[in-house]
Amino acid sequence: MMKFPDPANTVRAKIFASALLLLIPFSIYIAGFKYIGSGDTVASELLAVTLVREGNFDFNEFFIEGEEMPYAFTFSGSRIVNLYTVIPGMMNVPLFFAANVIGVDLESNLLKLNKISISLLAAISVVLMFYILLGLRFSIRRSFFFCIVYAFGTLVWSQAARGTWQHGPSILFLCSALLLMQSDKKSVFAWAGFFLALICVNRPVNAFIVLPVYVYVLVHKRDRFLPLVLTSLIPVAFLAWYSIEYWGSILSLGQGQSGKFVGDPLLAIPGMLISPARGLLIFSPVFAFSLLYMIRDVFRKGADVLDRYLTVGFILTLICYSFWERWSGGHCFGYRYLSEFIPVLIIFLAKSWDRYIAPRRIVKVMFGILFAASVYIHFLGAFIYPSGFDYIPNNIDFHPQRLWHVYDTEIIRCHNLFIDRIKSRL
Description:
It is built from 19 helices and two strands.
């Protein structure tokens, strides 16, 4: 008997699903054009303007001598430069260039253009995640579903698509690298190194994510290690040039900020995982199954070897930030410092489905509740935040004990604001 292809598993079905995963998240991300940055993102928001107009990375043309500048700008010699790394602002150049060509006033539309660009980049990462999951032999239906979790149950919605932070590009680069590493072709696999290096250039502390991946390639795919390193040199060369040209030293790593490792790991690690104001499992409770898979399955015999190295990267990152002076990430929504691991946690979540979720109806119900809660929380982060929690009645940077308050949290305040808005319209 002739066998016909399953229509749910055809190339056309994959293209249709990926198109939906681009258009639906982008449309929702862009809704209302609500942009949520911070003092950290101000220079990144403006960088594309100077790159398009003058082709350089300094902001001297925007300030009068002696004028007070936001803290995201600083002097390096006679130049005014971004205190933070420049990759987030560079990611906006294509849209700003196109807008400039058609005569759009870049400065008066600054935040709107930033919003469109970062929303599009976040939506592209959703599509990349879809093909990563397909490459792991998940069905189109399951891959599509977990991409919905990725798009709306995590900080991809409430942070990456809302402000010009460093985390959004890092998430996009990690998705790109993981997808390229699935290729059987050495020439394709090698370009994962370009994106792995970009993750570090974008945010140097991400070396704790990337180094275990390089070790994995060196140990388990040795014949691909040198090509991987060679493509890595492209972003590294840019970082070296920018650091020397604009900061005077390659040791600056393309930025002027510094921090103090004076934190308390015994407080910070639980804080990043379960504190009411910043906990990973509080803001995306659906990731409880990801951590369960990480703890119980990753180091078992027969598990995917790469998963082990990614888990090591997660642990190293968690430890690093636990010694940071402000493990909470300052004024932000949710688990900002752990957001780069969202792609990995989604992969682990998808892998946990058959083992822990699907076999038991009660667990499937629990999963549904946690998924719905995650989506609602990030809806609040995308459309209601900020609530004033970070600075009322006092600044959480100097009163970190408030991060552990159970009855007065960012989520509760945003929920109450949302309910008040509904009541006012009724």
